[in-house]
Amino acid sequence: MKQLSRQWNAAGGLAGEFGALPVGSGRWAATIDESWWGWSGPFGGAIVALAVHVSADAVPGASVRAVDLRFVGKPAGGELILTPSVREVGRHTRIVDVAVTQGTAEIAIASVTAGRVGDAAADDIVDFTAAVPGPEGLAQFDIPPEIVPMGGHLDLRPVDGPLPLTGADDPWMRAWISTRAPMALDAAYLGLLADCLPPAVFPTLTAPLAIPTVAFSMHITAALDDPEPAPVLVHTRNISTSGGWSVDDTTLRDRNGRLLASARQSRRVVGWSAR
Fold this sequence. Notes:
disordered N terminus, Porin, globular, mainly beta
């Protein structure tokens, strides 16, 4: 019974953190308080996570496999309303479209793919990478909360690679990340963590730039069969920055080096001429 209780508390951790509750007609309400804000407003990864959480609730028994989200407005403080709409695709696949609004403004639109996942087989293709040092014993990196408030919610431990704003040659970062409030390791949590590191071009800079996400996509690549809270190895790399746009690729792995999900973000670089 204690084990079930721990899992239930962790599973409710993300929804509880953002006060996400159903408000009738399939809709959900949530609030991203200022402690979860990023550079200039509510943390985009929290909006991704909420859209995935609402979608998963709309299709009980199915597993989230992919999410595509586009920001179509600028979120601000106050309540968000998430409205899911489910479409059946064949016998076992569901597409959940989620509209995220704030007042009369549309903030984001998401499309989440979910479906039945079969049992593991001997000939499955599974992506593993060489083990890296675990989070134990690694120094914690504190994101200054006066600059990025949501950093105070994270336990972030860099493994290797350059740090942000150090004028490095390489545009990538890799770190173990978990939230200080325990949350179940599910697709919504991976969506949150995929956006937790700064834009991957930041190590090459010496002063911050506003680089907001316009488009976010994530694909789940492994069965998330252990809901217990756990650190995730997040590796983000910038693959292109030019013409005022920047594209990052991110992988999320477990302690065994198994790929849990891959994500990609297209970002608009604001004030690129000042670089």
